[in-house]
Amino acid sequence: MFTFLRILFSRPPISWEDLAMVRIETEAALEAALAQSVREPILLFKHSTACPVSHRAFEEVKRLSGGAFLGVPPIFVILAIENRPLSLAVAEILQIQHQSPQMILVDRGAACWHGSHGGITAKAVSEAVSGHVRQVQGA
Q1: Could you tell me which CATH class the domain 21-138 is placed in?
Q2: Are 45 and 101 in contact (CB under 8 A)?
């Protein structure tokens, strides 16, 4: 029984070289990503490698990074379990509730949209980005 569950819930390791995403593993990398958001919007995805819901959300994020959607800003990823202090720091810095999985659109150093769990779909994120860009351009 345990072997069946282990096989069912085991996932192959993530091959970061094949993805158009940047993994954040240090405070300096987080600071650099937030500094980049001053020049252009970024997406920050907090991913739990042990959660099936987060795995599904990660598949949606991979669709975003694969070029199927136009205008997707740079995507940064924090592994929430492996880098819990960084994951919690994001919530504190951006003044939003900590969740995992969680996708955050950051512009000018501030969270301007965030979604979690089933709300993280390629379509929803793409629409949030497009809506934010239209709002900024219209201002």
Answers
A1: alpha beta
A2: yes
Q: How far is CA 79 from CA 43, 70, 76, 83, in A?
A: 14, 25, 10, 6
Q: Identify the band that residue 6 occupies on the pLDDT scale cut at 50, 70 and 90.
A: low
In the chain the first and final C-alpha atoms are separated, in Å, by 58
Q: What is the pLDDT of residue 90?
A: 96
E-state strands within 15-125: 22-23, 42-47, 75-79, 102-107, 110-116
Provide the pLDDT for residue 136.
85
Q: Can you give the residue ranges of every domain in the chain? A: 21-138
Q: Report pLDDT digits (tens) over 19-59.
A: 789 999 999 999 999 999 999 999 999 999 999 999 999 99
DSSP symbol at 17: G
CB of 105 within 8 A of CB of 128?
A: yes
